[in-house]
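User: Hand in any protein.

Assistant:
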Amino acid sequence: MRFSDIYDQVTEGATSRAERFASIAKELARFKKNMETRSIRPRKRRLLLAGAFILTVVFALIFYRIFQEIFVIDWWLGIYGLIVGFMIFTSFFCSYVRYKDPALKPTNPEAENRTPLVSAVIAVKNDQHVIGDTVNSCLNSSYANLEVVVVNDGSNDNGATKRAINRLQKQNPQRVKPIHLERNMGKRKAIQIGITQQAKGEVLILLDSDTIVEKDAIRNLVRCITNDPDMGAAVGYCRPFNSETNRLTKAEDTWYHGAFSVGKGMEAALGTVTCCSGTLSAYRMEAVLPALEMWANDKFCGVEFHPGDDRQLTAMVYGGSKHYIDKNLKAWKTTYCESAVSMSEVPTTFRKFIRQQIRWKKSWVRVFWFTAPYFYKNRNPVSVAYYYLQMGISFIAPLIALRNLVIIPLSGGGWDSAILYISGLMALSLLFGVDYVLYNPGSGNRWMYRIGITLLSVNVLHWLLSYAIFNLRKGGWGTR
């Protein structure tokens, strides 16, 4: 039975809890086996990287003339290629060579033996089928000093979610703390209420209502916080548990892997992870509390802004609170913990996927506006360059695609620019495909779906940014 079958059940009793647990355990075991290999990053892979770097230099010399031709054919494409090349090289070099899992670094005995109270806060709405597995995966964690605060954000499913949460509290009266809101407040306010009314921990865990946490994930995230007194937040590694459902979910699986392994690995190596994902992240409570009111009541373009709760809370931790609230507050470090493994559900239909992407684009625009005035301060210059270039590239990428794939060929400029542009996209896809194969042995031809994601980005996702900008005032609670 696939996870998509499990979570699409109409009635709670359609699939027994024992069957769901068995399926979850099987998927976690499969991912954990690969992740244990990833977290060590053996020297053999570093040698492989060194060999790949040498081959890159050789090919760079061979294609030097082609590089010249790019500028002859279209200098816009040449400059765009230079910027993208810098970003891709930075991503892979830093994530492969410089990144080290902070949970695996040697610590002093005092930090090693600390087990502060951890509060996991979960906001739910109409999630009666999944909340039990999410809460129990937290309770079964190897980190024992843990409480789970579940905030029922005005569910309108005839009390089904409320009954499911109350059963969990009855089974674990000392560790599960339910809050039932009479009306829907929105995810940010629901989390704020959970933190201020019930959470007592020194470390805060935030996770989505459909996230399944691997046994050691919370312990490893807590180690990241306690190992470094300047660490404000840490995000774990997440993969879809319903990746086998269809071609779209398989493509999302390859995308998720690259986003965490390469993207967040690079950011952590440079000192600042810009988004501690809502799937599973840990925060130092001291870093969150000053920002909570502003974050929960954020307004943008004259209306209350809901998307991007995870991205903006991260931004508050690594500098937003200091810049916007009180200059005496601390700008904390943020990191990525690849040994903190979790799984979450991804959209199974194209419509849901597009809705998710629009919400992410909106949050991206809002948080860039929020962080642009201070991100450059006291930060790794490579990280700064990457951050602002990434933002700029995202705005012009649709125009570059339109120019090289449509305007130049149809205006009589030939197809050279289109061929070179598509070749660059395929090379990028292959790089991420190789990364997927290295870290997912036995995955067969799954890596090829990464090509599909690249093509989808060019033809659809790039253009969603403009749509998101013109619809910033519209919002909702989530995608399900």
About this structure: Residues 1-15, 40-44 have pLDDT under 50 and may be disordered.
